[in-house]
Design brief:
Keywords: Magnesium, Metal-binding, Oxidoreductase, Pyruvate, Thiamine pyrophosphate. This protein is of the alpha/beta class and 899 residues long. Helix content is 41%, strand content 10%. It folds into 4 domains: 41 residues, no CATH class; 324 residues, Rossmann fold, CATH 3.40.50.970; 184 residues, 3-Layer(aba) Sandwich (Rossmann fold), CATH 3.40.50; 160 residues, Rossmann fold. α27 links the parallel β13 and β14. α1 crosses α2 and α14 packs across α16. The protein is elongated. The two termini are 56 Å apart. The model has no long low-confidence stretch (mean pLDDT 96). Bound molecules: thiamine diphosphate and magnesium ion. The site of magnesium ion (MG) has 8 residues, from loops.
């Protein structure tokens, strides 16, 4: 049907509408909804396309269904004044300093009431018997959060003074960063789009814990724990923001509330100047099955909208106006609104003839600035059962900032208000500060015994304490000794396996452990079979909130696809962003649910950091604890798959995140030692680190752990084998991941073909070696008069003889990182360049990292050292050429970097 369908029979239309009114009045909204549903079904059967999912441009909750406001509006207004003032003063003050550290005023001014209604009436703190709500606060409204914590006495005057001036340790962070303020912020939200997707998976994780019996479900749904995510309308353009909304309704996350601040603006200008963002979002969310509540107009409009004669025309006009116009109205003032908005229809202009320009401007506010409307929406949201809620709040960006930035395109970045602009803000909100205080942008703290301060504290005490807050009373888990993974420490003899299989065995061992078992959260994005994890389907079950309502086709197999309400494994489907968000929820559960969990997210390493890098960064910020496993890693290990699948760089991405420990092991015992150490550090000692471990899909026999290798494995390097006996020529070979085995083979070639002894070093963490090296260099720089510290690499290699050659399945920069700490000559081989499909052997030759290239590189390094030597048995350029000829290496072969 065309949207412009002409109403050929208004009388008939009116009768249908009246019929609905009568049903609502007599039997309520649920019955009316049911009737509509049935009518739509009947129409569809007759070939009528269903109407679209949009409702008129008015508040979803009619005045008749608005609950009475339970708070003291006058006192709340007093609190708001202090908040608006302090949030502004904080930014203005900071930017009078030479550093001009920035900050935002306009966004908090537009959302202040949305937060206040929550703090005063809804959000449960950590002492609430049902547990605390989780607040994903819009990142750049942080000044508002600090302003409240200041009133509450949780942030000091001097901290406010040092907003965004953190380096000296006195300040507070620009945005929500748990890493920087670990007892305050819980969730990092400022990278747009991550807040919404992480909030969805947090809500899902709460249900997971409840369904698995690891946390208790509230008896009264409205008072159960909720996840509240505050989002910008501009932010909703991020694919991550709306990309997971279907999961929220599919899993019936009625513990989730999105509040989208529709101030119609983003940073540069309008979000949808030519359209209506609220309507667009309504359609998307309603289509996805959410409870959608529009809060568009403040109470001042109620009388006009209910006007029996012209209310309908006003509603039509509201729908006709586009966002670019709405933004302009609020910027230009009451007279302009009279002319350009109401003036579009003479009847409407007449309707407001008795109102002054000021009344039009100040009384006809948007819904998000009206406590009663916001309260009604929140009340509806917490009572909504069976589906998540999104509240679309219509507001003005820079509300109250007037000429300094109300509804202006520059509002977002306005941070330097003049004294006269500050004075106007003060007057507009009746903030009790003197001209002198305005001049100095001084903070305002109402007296401790003032009614508003008593009210503020009383409300938070009634709701279970202050928020945001990240109490430090975390539980710890007892981790048994390394024998937990005993099976992985032994020689496997003829039996072959991959490190991926070793990792699965690690998980199985954890799952079988009485205390640790229930805490394990295996997470996969549709690749469990790739990693040989299908056995876990039955062992721990796949989480499905509704259980398994069908008989799986493989019910009679030994490893059936078993879904269950108490299932432990999170099968996220082909959705790396979602799986990572799930992992973050589990990895921060120790802090947010006071339940330490052991999440293991296993994925194709190429679809890891490169895909979800920003979430991994946020995980570091949120002090996540858990394991990320990059399966099928290495540029040459995944034969056949080609350019998109072959990862030669994820280790470097991981190395960028300061609290991410990264390892590239080769053998099962390394895997066991690394995982065990990780579990001790994270779960027993409570360290804020997480692990990235790359695993391989190549099967080979696993040797036993060399005596005393543990310390070196953890530090990133240990001697795997020392060439026995005395030799004239000696080299030191380094390798990790899949290429260590090529390095071991090269040692044999060097010995048998060239009489060169090669000591072999495994380097399961070049990243950790580099960090340790840099830390020593830094300490030495700052302590020139003290005995120098020696990096672990240097300690390992300083007594060793001959040049050092490293080869890995990663780009050269990976092994290059340790060059400064390697004594003497150091040659690096690596897999720079796009991958391609072929066999492992062909790929390793193509990228020049295999046993032959390691051998040639070792001979070349020796030849360079012995240049001009006439000694018998000296290695020369000729020897290198001979070796190339022997191994069939074409010196004119194209450079794989560009091939
Ligand atoms: C991924 C990402 N890109 C860009 C930014 C920079 N940025 C911060 S706020 C903002 C505009 C936000 O507009 P909106 O979401 O509508 O929030 P409002 O301030 O209007 O409430 C931008 C582009 C960011 N923080 N994250
Ligand atoms: Mg906006």
């Amino acid at each position: 049907m065309s949207m412009d369908f002409h109403d050929t029979d208004p009388q008939e239309t009116g009768e249908w509408q009246e019929a609905i009114d009568v049903v609502v009045e007599r039997t309520g909204v649920d019955r009316a909804r049911y009737l509509l549903q049935k009518t739509v079904e009947a129409a569809a059967e007759a070939g009528v396309e269903p109407p679209d999912t949009h409702t008129p441009y008015i508040n979803t909750i009619p005045v008749s269904q608005q609950p009475a406001y339970p708070g003291n509006l006058e006192l709340e207004r007093h609190i708001l004044r202090a908040l608006r003032w302090n949030a502004t003063a904080m930014v203005v003050k900071a930017n009078r300093k030479p550093a001009e550290p920035g900050g935002h005023i306009a966004s908090f001014q537009s959302s202040a009431i949305m937060y206040e209604v929550g703090y005063n009436h809804f959000w449960k703190g950590h002492d609430h018997p049902n547990g605390s709500d989780m607040l994903f606060i819009q990142g750049h409204t942080a000044p508002g959060t600090y302003a409240r914590a200041f009133l509450e006495g949780r942030i000091s005057d001097s901290q406010l003074e040092n907003f965004r001036i953190e380096a000296a340790g006195k300040g507070i962070s620009s945005y929500p960063h748990p890493y920087l303020m670990p007892d305050f912020w819980q969730f990092s939200t400022v990278s747009m789009g991550l807040g919404p997707i992480m909030a969805i998976y947090q809500a899902r994780f709460l249900k997971y814990l409840e369904n698995r019996g690891l946390s208790k479900k509230a008896e009264n749904h409205a008072e159960g724990r909720k996840v509240w995510a505050f989002l910008g309308d501009g932010e909703m353009d991020e694919p991550e923001s709306q990309g997971a909304i279907a999961l929220a309704s599919r899993e019936k996350l009625d513990n989730l509330v999105f509040v989208v601040n529709c101030n119609l603006q983003r940073l540069d200008g309008p979000v949808r100047g030519n359209g209506k963002i609220v309507q667009e979002l309504e359609g998307n969310f309603r289509g996805a099955g959410w409870n959608v509540i529009k809060v568009l107009w403040g109470s001042g409009w109620d009388r006009l909208l209910d006007d029996p004669k012209y209310g309908k025309l006003l509603r039509q006009l509201m729908m006709e106006c586009i966002d670019g116009e709405y933004q302009n109205f609020k910027n230009k003032g009451g007279a302009y609104i009279r002319e350009k908005f109401f003036g579009k229809y003479p009847e409407l202009k007449a309707m407001v003839a008795d109102m002054s320009d000021d009344q039009i401007y100040y009384d006809l506010i948007r819904g998000g600035h009206d406590q009663a409307k916001v309260y009604a929406a929140y009340h509806n949201a917490v009572n909504s059962v069976g589906r998540p809620t999104v509240i679309l709040m219509h507001t003005v960006k820079g509300y109250g900032m007037g000429e300094a930035g109300e509804g202006m395109n520059i509002s977002h970045q306005q941070k330097k208000l003049s004294s006269s602009q500050l004075g106007k803000l003060r007057d507009r909100f009746h903030i009790p500060v003197t001209d002198e205080q305005v001049e100095k942008a001084e903070f305002y703290q109402p007296a401790a015994d003032s009614p508003e301060m008593q009210y503020l504290h009383a409300r938070r005490q009634a709701l279970g304490g202050y928020l945001p807050n990240r109490p430090q009373n975390f539980e710890t888990l007892d981790v048994p000794d390394l024998s937990l993974f005993e099976a992985l420490l032994k020689d496997t003899g003829e039996r072959t396996m991959s490190t991926t299989m070793a990792m699965v065995r690690v998980m199985v061992a954890i799952a079988r452990h009485k205390e640790l078992g229930p805490r394990l959260v295996p997470i996969v994005p549709d690749e469990a079979r790739t990693f040989g994890m299908e056995g876990m389907f039955r062992q721990v079950g796949i989480y499905a909130p509704e259980g398994q309502k069908y008989e799986p086709m493989d019910a009679n197999d030994i490893m059936p696809y078993k879904e269950s309400q108490k299932g432990q494994l999170l099968q996220e489907g082909i959705n790396e962003d979602g799986a990572m968000s799930s992992w973050i929820a589990a990895a921060t559960s120790y802090a947010n649910n006071h339940k330490m969990m052991i999440p293991v997210y296993i994925f194709y390493s190429m679809f890891g950091f490169q895909r979800i890098g920003d979430l991994a960064w946020a995980a570091g910020d949120m002090l996540a604890r858990g394991f990320l496993i990059g399966g099928t890693s290495g540029r040459t290990t995944l034969n056949g798959e080609g350019l998109q699948h072959q990862d030669g760089h994820s280790q470097l991405f991981a190395g960028f995140i300061p609290n991410c420990m990264s390892y590239d092991p080769t053998f099962a015992y390394e895997m066991a030692v690394i995982c065990h150490d990780g579990m001790k550090r994270m779960y027993q000692n409570g360290e804020n680190v997480f692990y990235y471990i790359t695993t391989l899909n190549e099967n080979y026999a696993m040797p036993a752990m060399p005596e005393g290798a543990e310390e070196g494995i953890i530090k990133g390097m240990y001697q795997f084998r020392k060439a026995e006996g005395k030799a004239k020529q000696r080299v030191q070979l380094l390798g990790c991941g899949s290429i260590l085995r090529e390095v071991i083979a090269a040692a044999e070639l060097l010995q048998t073909d060239w009489g060169v002894a090669a000591d072999i070093w495994a380097t399961p963490s070049l990243n950790e070696l580099a960090r340790d090296g840099a830390a020593c260099a830094r300490w030495n720089l700052l302590h020139p008069d003290q005995e120098a510290r020696k990096p672990w690499v240097t300690q390992c290699l300083e007594g060793a003889e001959g040049p050092v050659i490293a080869s890995t399945d990663y780009i050269r920069n990976f092994a290059e990182q340790i060059r400064a700490y390697v004594p003497g000559s150091y040659s690096v081989l690596g897999t720079d360049g796009f991958g391609r499909s072929d066999s492992r052997a062909a790929l390793r030759a193509h990228f020049e990292v295999d046993r032959h290239y390691v051998t040639v590189a070792a001979l070349k390094a020796l030849a360079d050292q012995q240049q001009g030597s006439k000694a018998k048995g000296a290695i020369t350029a000729k020897t290198v050429l001979e070796a190339m000829a022997k191994y069939g290496i074409d010196p004119e072969k194209p450079n794989p970097l560009y091939a």
